[in-house]
Write a structure and sequence with these properties.
87 residues; mainly alpha; 0% strand
Length: 87
């Protein structure tokens, strides 16, 4: 239920009506879920892992861009390409 709430698939009132529970109980479970107390991994840790993966991809992209710049600089120095050439 909490994952369904967090995904935005259902609204709190819809979930509570479907499962015949109080809204306060649903929000209590949501808080417990966020802390990892419902046999799940804490949401903050999962969010941090996602952020780390995104940053790792960004670092990889920047490393490739740096390599490209170094190679272009080398080609300019050797005169293989002209700085006035448009690509």
């Amino acid at each position: 239920m909490v994952e369904e709430l967090l995904s935005g698939v259902s609204r709190p009132t819809q979930l509570c009506g479907s499962y015949n529970i109080a809204v306060s109980l649903l929000y209590h479970w949501k808080k417990q879920y966020g802390l990892g107390k419902l046999n799940n991994e804490p949401v903050k840790e999962a969010a941090m892992r996602d952020k780390i993966e995104k940053l790792e991809r960004m670092v990889g992209k920047l490393a490739m861009e740096k390599e490209l710049i170094i190679r272009l600089k080398y080609c300019l120095i050797l005169g293989i390409i002209s700085p006035y050439t448009h690509y």
